[in-house]
Fold this sequence. Notes:
The chain is mainly α and 199 residues long. Helix content is 85%, strand content 0%. It has 6 helices and no strands. The chain has helices spanning 6-11, 14-33, 40-107, 111-134, 138-159, 165-193. The radius of gyration is 35 Å and the shape is rod-shaped.
Amino acid sequence: MDTLDIVKILGTGIAGFGFLLMYLAYKLIASLVTLPKVNPAILKMINRYMLVCFIMTVTVGVFTFMSTSYKNDLISNQEAVIKSKDTALNILTTSQKSKLLADSVSKATDSQTIAEVQSRQNSYLDTLQKYIESQHNPTQRERFNRYKTSLSTIADSLTMSNVDHRRREFLREKYVTLNDSISRLSLKVVDNQLPGIIK
């Protein structure tokens, strides 16, 4: 018993407890064998007890293995769902941040502010592009790239000083419309990833 760590053995659960009982029965038999006169009925009873402990340990071990395998599969499935929901949340958050910056661009009056905000929005659009490309949907990817290119072109036009007021207002409306389209596309990407989450 000196070499066994009883706490660790019992820490494995019922299987460890069964093993410990079986080991103690074995040690009892080993100590009785050295005695000169031992009642054979006692040895027989200890052997039966040890057999019962063995059967209990094996049975519990098998059920523990089966239950652990099931739990590991369940945890793996839950991990995939959590990762998918985390990605969906990141897509929606990035899309919302991009939309807020788009509103700033549409209200900005000077070229410097428009250029700075557009630069920040581009980083969000790049992040969204990575998520959309990871979905392996060529239609969505092509639409997003078209929207992104159009946004960049409009932002460049808005920074030019020679654009008249009427044209500038049209470009701002178009800029907002394109960002709304990107938001809707982001919702579609999330719905494709997690069907039923967007209602």
